[in-house]
Design goal:
Layout: E1 11-14, H1 22-27, E2 32-36, H2 41-44, H3 47-54, E3 59-63, H4 72-86, E4 90-95, H5 97-109, H6 117-120, E5 132-136, E6 148-153, E7 158-163, E8 171-174, H7 184-202, H8 209-231, H9 236-248, H10 264-276, H11 280-295, H12 301-312, H13 320-337, H14 354-364, H15 376-385
Parallel strand pairs: 1-8, 2-3, 2-4, 4-5, 5-8
Antiparallel strand pairs: 6-7
The structure holds 5,6-dihydroxy-NADP (NZQ) and zinc ion.
The site of zinc ion has 6 residues, from helix 7.
């Protein structure tokens, strides 16, 4: 078991109606609020009006229009400027992972005099960040319980995971009812994203029995509850458990003491959405079974056998290679069954830029030290197999 440190200072406020506590929580932090949100879903579900009504007496500045795969320019830059101009004391993110990730970059940029890209690109370490509170409306990323944000810079095709302990939200409001309106496409992408967060932790060199059980239960829960959410979008129990698993799936709590896998599938996917602006969870679902196939070997076989037997209930008496193949096929079939397009071509990605992306990934994502090290050639081969 590896050494580790763990500290997640975020207060989770979970369940139906918890939004009523928003004024109390926010009031303890500051009165000058930057309210960040996306393209309008929070207005459609009445959450925008509810937040404004609850925050009567607060001084609110708004940053609307944050896009999926949030952009440095204009959203992060506009947010930083608004914080500085208005003496913002706290950022309130209302929306999905993209709004929250953007808010995290703004929180750090607002306390820095130079170009915020210095921080996101790790040229300069942030010394301070504004506090963040979020009301989550989409179960997927786990951003509500971690200290990372993923920011895209269109002109360079960069999509960078910006991680700093200063960026943990102070409090996350998690009311599953706000996820009832999430489309089938985004619900399925959320299931795939969170499943992949767990798989990234599960497929590693050393794992404890405890963590394996935690991960296996998490994946099974996502498969069962995710499907129930798709069948009945207003199934509170299913939406609630899905939200809870997603929240736990990305802050490393499921792999404390395991060796680090290097998160190879995320390394590859970030280039896909950096170059083509595709939906993150869909990109991951496409890459996952091809990556699995690529890394299957004598060395990794026992992990695949364990995954196949414990997650899919495949007969442990079968030959190990047969179990592994079946486990990969079932992973693919599950994603397909929840409506995810399973080829890069289906999401508008052709052969043209695969080599360029493989080069970009190899140069920037450090995958030569992943659980199974991936060279540029390996990455290209996984991308080709995903076409
Ligand atoms: O913009 P609006 O109108 O709000 O619509 C959004 C958006 O179009 C919509 N939506 C959100 N809540 C809704 C809703 N529609 C109806 N009802 C609701 N209640 O869903 C669309 C997608 O939203 P987005 O925030 O982009 O989705 P998600 O939460 O999956 O976030 C994806 C981003 O998170 C990053 C991804 O790379 C991607 O940029 N990630 C962040 C991580 C982190 N911070 O730890 C880890 C992940 O691995 C991931 O990389
Ligand atoms: Zn992810």
């Amino acid at each position: 078991m590896q050494n580790f440190e763990y500290c997640t200072p975020t207060r989770l406020i979970f369940g139906k109606g918890v939004i009523e506590k928003l004024p109390e929580v926010l009031g303890g932090i500051g009165k000058k609020v930057l309210l960040t949100y996306g393209g309008g879903s929070i207005k459609k579900i009445g959450l925008y009006d509810k937040v404004l009504q609850l925050l009567d007496g607060f001084e609110i500045t708004e940053l609307p229009g944050i896009q999926p795969n949030p952009k440095y320019d204009p959203s992060v830059l506009d947010g930083v400027r608004l914080c500085k101009e208005n003496g913002i004391e706290v950022i309130l993110s209302v929306g999905g992972g993209s709004v929250l990730d953007c808010s995290k970059a703004i929180a750090a940029g607002a306390c820095y005099d130079g170009d915020p890209w210095d921080l996101i690109s790790y040229k300069v370490k942030a010394r301070k960040a504004l506090p963040i509170v979020d009301v989550l409306t989409l179960a997927a990323t786990g951003s509500e319980y971690d200290c990372g944000g993923v920011i895209s810079r269109t002109e360079t095709n960069d999509k960078i995971g910006y991680i700093d302990p200063l960026l943990f939200p102070v409090a996350s409001f998690l009311d599953p009812c706000y996820t009832f309106s999430v489309s089938k496409k985004q619900t399925a992408a959320g299931i795939a994203d969170a499943m992949n967060h767990i798989l990234e932790q599960y497929f590693c060199e050393d794992a404890t029995l405890m963590n394996d059980g935690f991960c296996e239960a998490g994946i099974k829960s996502l498969m069962v509850n995710g499907r129930a959410c798709l069948d009945n979008p207003e199934d509170y129990t299913a939406r609630a458990e899905m939200m809870f698993v997603c929240t736990l799936a990305c802050n490393n709590i499921m792999s404390l003491g395991n060796s680090d896998s290097g998160w190879p599938m995320h390394g590859i996917e970030h280039a896909l959405s950096g170059y083509y602006d595709i939906t993150h969870g869909e990109g991951l679902a496409i890459i996952t079974p091809r990556w699995m196939q690529h890394i299957l070997s004598e060395r990794t076989l026992p992990r695949f056998v364990k995954y196949g037997v414990n997650v899919f209930g495949i007969d442990s008496g079968l030959d190990g290679w047969a179990i592994a193949k079946e486990a990969i096929d079932r992973t693919y079939a599950f994603y397909e069954s929840i409506g995810i397009p399973m080829h890069l071509r289906d999401v508008g990605i052709g052969e043209e830029r695969l080599s360029e992306m493989a080069h970009h990934i190899a140069a920037n994502e450090g995958l030569d030290s992943a659980y199974v090290p991936l060279s540029e050639e390996d990455i290209l081969s996984i991308l080709r197999a995903s076409l």
